[in-house]
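Holo prediction — NAP.
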Amino acid sequence: MNITIITGASSGIGQEFALQLDSLFHNMDEIWLIARRKERLTELSLALHTKCRVIDMDVTNSASMNQLSELLAVSKPQIRMLVNCAGFGLMGAVEKLSLEEQLGMIRLNCEALTEMTYRCLPYMRGGSRIIQMASSAAFLPQANFAVYAASKSYVLSFSRALGQELKKRKIYVTSVCPGPVDTEFFDIAEKYGKTLSVKKLTMVSADKVVKKAIRDSREKKDISVCGLPIQAFHVLTSLLPHSVIFHIMKFCK
Ligand SMILES: NC(=O)c1ccc[n+]([C@@H]2O[C@H](COP(=O)([O-])OP(=O)(O)OC[C@H]3O[C@@H](n4cnc5c(N)ncnc54)[C@H](OP(=O)(O)O)[C@@H]3O)[C@@H](O)[C@H]2O)c1
């Protein structure tokens, strides 16, 4: 049985992956949709042509992760694609945000993504692909978004290294690094702080980000960056000393 697994499928970018992969992959037996909000997943599953398995779980919960592992062991699927989208960010100064909320970002964005990847790998074979949602926040440390940006640097670094390790198995890993994407992400991210207006000018749709990510994954690229402004930001962060960029950013509103 060939399957695709998508975490964070109940909204935004994860939901968009489900919709686009459903119309692209005609030889996929099932799409496994993972998130906590079951009703959203069920609604999505009804809109897809591919058979879906709705798995309502918190990916940071180890008992739920063990249950998912048991399900994999029983079904023995071939995972042709894993898309790790579950994630959240919170803006605000490290001293002001609660410790629990900040550790929560690390648990979801880093630990759960690593665990999901690890548990799925035994069921992947040559030609399987992994798509990891990182962010352009991975390119540069960001004051007032410190833990989130650091968590996404982890995703990018981990996934690029993993991609190197998996090349010999012909399993390809793509890290997706968009700037702001128009999703529910900001309902949580802006609970205590506001996004810079200059960043909001570069906002793109989930549809655009996912289209490019799928294309880049097909082309076995290790990183997918959508849109000219964010591609330029990526180049700048690799060419200029970060201290110079921090200085420029002081003038951004
Ligand atoms: N939007 C942006 O500007 C942007 C930019 C760059 C990168 N990203 C990254 O893209 C990914 C998707 O974000 P999005 O924009 O699509 O935001 P979103 O609409 O808020 O989606 C987040 C998804 O994660 C799921 N999720 C959250 N906590 C979970 C948990 N503990 N267990 C299982 N699922 C959980 C949510 O579902 P439930 O609430 O139902 O569990 C939801 O489906 C994230 O990793 C985010 O960091 C977003």
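READOUT: The mean pLDDT is 95.
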